[in-house]
Fold each of these.
Amino acid sequence: MSQATRRPNRSDTSSDGDPEAAGETVLAVDDLQKTYGDGDDAVHAVDGVTFAVDRGEVVGVLGPNGAGKTTTIKSILGLVVPTAGTVEIAGVNAQDDPRAVYQHVGAMLEGARNTYWRLTVAENLRFFAALGGRDPDAARDRHERLLQQFNLDDKADEPVNELSRGQKQKVSLAATLARGTDVVFLDEPTLGLDVEASVELRRELRRLADEEDITIVLSSHDMDVVESVCDRVVILSEGSVIADDPVEDLVGVFETHAYRVTVEGQVPSGVRTQLTDGYHTENWDVLEDRTRFDVTLADGDTLHGVLDVLQAADRQLLDVDGLEPDLEDVFLDVTDTAPGSDADEGGDAE
Amino acid sequence: MSAPTQSAGFDTGPRGYLRYFLAAFRKRLLLLLRYPVNTISQFGTILLVFFVVFYGGRAVAPTAISDSIEGIIVGYLLWSMSITAYSGLSWGVTREAQWGTLEQLFMSPFGFGPVMVVKMVVNVLESFLWGALTLLVMMTVTGHWLAVDPLTVVPLGALALAPAVGIGFFFGGLAIRFKRIENAFQLMQFFFIGLIAAPVAQYPLMKWLPLAQGSQLLQTAMKDGVALWNLPAGEVAVLVATAVGYLALGYAAFHYCQRWARREGVMGHY
């Protein structure tokens, strides 16, 4: 795994400040704060979180345990009363008029337990449609479409407690959408799902955003899910946003800074010490006729410096490969280098 | 920032609220019918306790039971209905928190309070269903037939139940804030017995306690066959005042507790 050391700068890659590129904003979180306790015992679970989400965008909220993800999402949803800051959804201030906001918002929280398991799938959709102010009879066609899309049409009349975990998860999502919401918050949507069910759910989430313009904000520890579904990620650490970038940009920032270098023969110990002292190198692999190692360059360093050292030692360069980081590498690096970061000391009350 | 786009498809006015009430009522009915063993055992438990009181009492003190059987029937009727209405809220909130559906109820565009009011009304209707069946069985078993004028018994019963509903809201709020308080729920059942049996005639101030005045007036209406409009206006006024007062206090406490829970970040945690 590469160990990139550069923290992404929001101004490097974010679309902020580019009104042409910006779409229709449906969620705007501004300086959101949540503090538990006071005085010396105060815990800043969310500390000035600011971000915006456009219509039809899928945004992942990431962070180590205790980073403030769940508190942030619950504060946006009004399930936690924020200490300060504002949340606007579809142009409505969530604190001033939460009922108007709930016309647009649905949430799937805490895995699959968001529906009534003793009711059938169809009964759940009807109930949650009515709870959301919709006429269940008028929404019947939409519900049938939802069930078809989620491959649940043959399960419509089965009680939810008789379904598999993956199906229950899909019922939860369908029940959320049955209310006709256009902004959906998902907390660990693939938690506990097998690979097949997870892939199916990811595909469905992407389709909802692409085809139905539904805005999705999801938190997940599964980087594959985030990387495959999200357009953008907001990374939290210690209750603050430390990165807010499109996935490809975030990964792109790192991908040119980690390399696997292969040279002919063995590297003399003095040269190796020089490289180890001057650069972040790891995974040294000494073979019979060649030596291979990974180097991750910090800001301002160039690969030329490494190559100069090798050239001075008269080592013939055989190969240099850029190491492709995945989002997990980026996430680990970003959260590791965040000011004051220490997942074990997270002050979140999640 | 975009303007709301889907409001047109929603109806959160009276018609939408009625639709939600019907959906909640239908949900409760479906569950009662879908799980008949559970439903029958729920009703069976209510009857069993009465049989223990009636047959047990008759075996131990036949005269005392015979003299007071009508009072026992009315008192037991109110107690069983109170328990159904009260526990539907307090236990209901606890179960919803466990299921993860409490947050879904909270995020309704009708507002959490109105959604819980619907839950309360459904519970009260259910308590009337069980109450009617229990009353029928009790009168059949004991052979004592009381005056059951719906125009009198239904409004009096509803007003008598209101303080129990208020207490249900209060404990529902505590459950949201403090979670595991099931033992306190159970304890309240015994307090209800004391409140229903409170000697209001001897100590008139007791009529201001929850359930006490409702119990007293239901006894008068059902034992003596006095119609609602023939009851002393002052006594009915006390009943209305206690009904509205305790219900409002309970609802206010519930509202306060849910906000407290949200401030502490424990809404829905269990």
Amino acid sequence: MSARRRTVGISLVAAALLLGGCGTVSDDEVRKVATTFAATHDADTRCALLAPATVATLTEQESSTCPDAIGKVRLGSGRPVAVQVWGEEAQVKLTDDTLFLTRTPHGWRVMAAGCRFRSEQRPYDCQLEGS
Amino acid sequence: MASGSGRLRGLKENELSLVFGGLFLATLLGQAFSGLAEFNAQRLTDGLAQVSLLRYVTSSSFAVDVMENWQSEYLQFFLYIFATVWLIQRGSSESKEAGDSGPESDRAQRVGRFAQEDSPAWVHAGGWRATVFSRSLGLVMAGFFLLTWSASSVAGWAAFNGDQLRNLQDPVSWPGYLLEADFWNRSLQNWQSEMLAVGSMAIFAVYLRQRGSPESKPVGAPHDATAATG
């Protein structure tokens, strides 16, 4: 095999590994944020893991601070059973809830939580979501 | 001096592909910026974080917008190359003469015992090499169409699922995406424009002229003159 063919082959394999590796890193980061969000009972921690738009919607709807408002929302606390990451968005199915996450400059954040499936044609009905 | 004039001659002899190659790169760069602006405008509306140019051009959204156009271009050329073997448009510079429909004779195509000294190597080789070479243009276009259409389906699937999640809906599988309106809308909206362009060119070339272009008949050629080029 010529040196040029070897270089092309190695480059293609490296690209595939890099892309596949990037996907795995995102899955792990998403799983970690979702696990922390679900497992904690600390309102401040949960609020810190919410996307900015979701915090804004929650505080506006409840007319109170996020830590005070989030305690009134029924959210799951189970462990993750399925993680899907597609570009800037992700979904984590917990044993008792479904979370939707989005990538922000500060890492993955929960965009919607307390979500119930309605039908394939309609969005999940979520207790907590950004506008 | 000799190498300089040789380089200049090389540029001159390839100016058509160089100019269009440059235009392709410039318009692809323009698409990257305009696509980023549109993508971020939508994310701003949805209350989501904006992305950088690097993140955007490595995203499935950019990939599908590029691939859906490439696949239709290669489909257009593949169909046009094969169609013009068999189909006639009387009076068009894009068509053969009536009666020449089909792969034509070995003598007309300069293959087999009619190959000339400067014919390509695979013509002289004969056998399967000559058979493949004599269909290589259409085969490569067909191959690139299938590759880019496949890439478009994968990139479109990823972009579609990103939209699904943004809209708080479940992602779909790749076979599921192939049944979605999004995939077929992207494919068909591109295909219709390619077929329109080819059909328009075939009939416009009957009645209209562009002096100096090999895509046109000579200005003074009659409308019913077929297969003439300027």
